[in-house]
Write the structure tokens for this entry.
Amino acid sequence: MGAAVTLMVPGVNGVDVMAGTAASPLQTQAVTASTSTTARVATSTTVATLRAANTARKGLTVFNESGAVLYVKLGSAASATDYTYAAPANGYYEVPYGYTGIVTGILASGTGFAQVTELT
């Protein structure tokens, strides 16, 4: 039998986190969603709430239906200089698992729509 192996993964501020060992493996549980809610949200050069905060959220996707970059922010007041992801025209973004806060967006120019799907 081989020696025990410990899996270390990078953590916050350079501090590694022990994820498990051969003798004591990391326990995981699949996250499932049984409901989806879709919304076609009007977007422009004024900040729009793409989805309000929801503690029951298990996932969220945003599809940029416009012809301009959609700046998506996990938080309030998205802007061209303060955003989480710049979704190109016809671009798609999956919000990281576990984020349940407000999601906002603003277009670089013009008007358009964002197709938002929330999984709960």
